[in-house]
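Q: Fold this one first, please.
A: Sequence and structure below.
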Amino acid sequence: MSWAPHITVACVIEKDGNFLIVEEESFGQGVYNQPAGHVEPGETLIAAAIRETREETGWQVKPTELLGLYVYSPPTTRSLITAPALSLKPSSTIQTKPWMMV
């Protein structure tokens, strides 16, 4: 039996008390989320975090710290999702408003 975990990265990007977010659709509902996505074959976790943030928001970021490593096993499938959460620092001046104050 072959088994391969699904590895994703999630990015928390804060500047001046605001957090960079993306608006997505999940099960037909609009939701807000942090930039995140799957790690591609041969890609490092840091490279995946930078790429996902750039693809989803257009922002170049620089990783500053690892916030945690989480493992989730959905009750309805045999998959295992591994998700490191990284804190990243924007490399650009923020001029648009994809930012949410919490």
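Q: Good. Now the second chain.
A: Here it is, same layout.
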Amino acid sequence: SNVRFRHHREWQERRVWYPPFFFVRELRVAMGETMNLGQLRWRCRRGMRELDRAFVYVLNEVYPQRNAEFQAVFARFTEEQDPDILAMLSGRMEVPAPYQELVEIMRNCGAFASNAN
């Protein structure tokens, strides 16, 4: 009858697998470096709405499905300055080789679409 107890019992009997708490909160980044998902989400906060939308799209939709190498590149990309990121996304600055796939995904996510009807 108690839902919490039922889920706990199923987990104990291994009928349903629930990941341990630390797997949910932490993400493995390249070379054994661990990053908290909350920290990464905070680093995705930007001063522009378009950048916010692009980063949140990648974090929610693309990041979980990609390999550790892509995740490490994304984590490094969040350390770049906003003007440089905007210049890369708008094509005013040459995109470094490691960021090319990520920048292409961010360009095509719809965050930079015009609002013209």
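Q: Anything worth noting on the second one?
A: The longest strand covers residues 26-28.
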